[in-house]
Design a protein that fits this description.
Blueprint (H helix, E strand, L loop, with lengths): L1 H12 L4 H8 L3 H9 L7 H11 L3 H5 L7 H8 L1 H16 L2 H20 L1
């Protein structure tokens, strides 16, 4: 997440506040705060460029997609019975046509989004 990257870099540079970092980035405190806190989900390229320049972070680092984590899969892998079932399911998943996989992914994303709203 971009906020984690910014916080880590601020710490490395010895910056104590968002205001101090925002000054280095030529941004308002509110703008940088919103990006760091995740309230601005897709900051403009101009904002990203200013953050990259001000905090000396490669722009690629600020724009890369985060690696997904799957803690539930790690938990399943610890249980031999659950692991065997999971491995069978993954074999079947690998045999599905890409169109079917896409539909399942879209459905899961929809369900997750609905659960966030609750």
């Amino acid at each position: 997440m971009i906020g984690d990257i910014i916080r880590r870099r601020m710490k490395e540079l010895g910056l104590k506040s968002i205001r101090e970092a925002a000054g280095r980035c030529a941004l308002t405190t509110q703008t940088l705060w919103s990006v760091v806190k995740g309230h601005t989900k897709n900051p403009s390229i101009d904002v990203i460029k200013k953050i990259a320049a001000g905090l000396r972070i490669p722009i690629e680092e600020l724009t890369k997609e985060p690696e997904p984590t799957y803690p539930h899969v790690e938990m399943i892998m610890k249980d031999p019975t659950a692991r065997a079932s999971f491995e069978k399911m993954m074999v079947k998943w690998s045999q599905l046509p890409e169109e079917a996989k896409k539909s399942v992914d879209e459905y899961i994303a929809f369900v997750l989004e609905q659960n966030k709203k609750k």
